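User: Show me sequence and structure for the first protein, then do the same for the second.

Assistant: Starting with the first protein.
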Amino acid sequence: MKFSKPTTFLRVNQELTDNQLLHKAAALLGVSEFQLFVDAWQAWYDEKPSEKRIEPYFVEFLDHRLVPFWVRNHVRQILSNEELLDRESKRLMVGTITYYGPLLAFFVLLMWYLMKG
């Protein structure tokens, strides 16, 4: 008996799972998933949690990939503001160039002057 290999099709509009969204938000912010749990707790309950308070939820996430409702809500808010984050990162880049550009020009001119004279 010969079995054919199952055909899998990639759906273009496939929705991301909660875990994938959590990883995407953490990468977008440049923080760890644990830090995202801490931030989500603080945003939902309006209090800074201890590591011991977050740890059981995070272990549950690592073991069973269960995302608590307050983390899911926080992640959705972050990703809905992705455009805002993109604009903010561009603004920070322009600010950095504006701040360090004249300093760089000064040092280039100083080095040119010292090497010439």
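Switching to the second protein now.
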Amino acid sequence: MLEPTHNSELPPIPSKRYFTIGEVSDLCAVKPHVLRYWEQEFPQLKPVKRRGNRRYYQREEVEMIRTIRSLLYEQGYTIGGARQRMSDEQEALNPAEVQTMAKECMVELAKAQALLAIED
């Protein structure tokens, strides 16, 4: 995922499993109504909803919100541009593809190692 560049002024994210919308609002310097709007605009952002439709965000979602904030407020992206950038990043980091490529690299490295061992 993208690393926000100017989010150093934001408070560190505590090591908790779930965060309420108010906590995320404070951690990301974004008002709760903006977070709810972003949920509609960014399909990757889906907090868990429990008890009376209350939202609970996980750490990855808080980091994603900080990235969205950086794209919109600091880098000057539009909502559509930020959505596209986030979607491109998500596609680029597909875990299944990365795992397959890693396995292929390991096979190639094993073959190269075997060839080098023969030459010695």
